[in-house]
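Deliverable D4.2, example record:
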Amino acid sequence: MKDTEAASELFQPVALATLQFERATPCDLYRRMHSGRYVFFAKKGILFDQAARQRVIDSGADTLFILEGERDLYHAYLKETLISVVADPTVTTEKKAEAVHVACLQTLHRAYEEPRAVFISQACEILEPTVQLIVTDHEATRHLIRLTSYDHSTYIHSTNVGIFSIALAKILFSGNRDHDMQALGAGFFLHDLGKCRIPIEILNKPGLLDDWEMEIVRRHVLDGYQMVEDSGLMTDEARTIILQHHERDDGRGYPYGHLAKEIHPYARICRLADVYEALTSDRPYHVCRSSVEALKFMKEHVVSGPDERLFAGFVKLFTL
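Output generated by the structure prediction step:
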């Protein structure tokens, strides 16, 4: 093995779980030592099988690294692998769910960390087979819902909201071709992209936000809209979801203070998933609730008349 100076090359982390299904590695792989040095682990083109993964696991790591310059090669590998896995009838639904879940986390992490057009585009490419799996495979949807992990990281929150929202849209719009599920998926998964511009000390503040801090938080809706618009990937569905998912029926939402009749069902779907995910996640300002506690709270304090049918469908997600 050879060492590589961390300062001489830029490295990108890749989740170990994305290197699976006994496919050849798309580029050289490295491990990061406790000292910060990067150690060559596997050469491009070798079969990354269970034995290779186990060596990484035994070392106590769940992440490998690639050179930053080979990022596009890795993304192409990830996309091709995901499409192949989703379409393969010999792969179990559980494995399919695991594959799309970790791929979403990987690509959304990068998009939310550095929201340039290229990374937003790559995230949307990974979302296509993810949405397709949710729409076509009931059992895989059940596994995906179980895989959601509750954390206050924005990209994890957005992955969870995307999964819940597409699963709910599937229930509500099943058989109706007027709804473009792929366009909805991009809106649901990218709804909070603007949060990447909120200072971390505000996102992680344990107490109530003051008026200035709340104004900064509320700005994330328009910031996120502008980022997706600038990427050239905006759709009518994504525009509606991003701009309206914090509106409230009483007009006290933001950014425009819409009333109930002005809020689109797509945004309502996202809002329900967003509230549920926030309630069931550990946040600096509250202790997470159980699913039952969160649904009860939403029924009593969040759901209004226009939301009742949507909420009934949302509850079904947890009885799959």
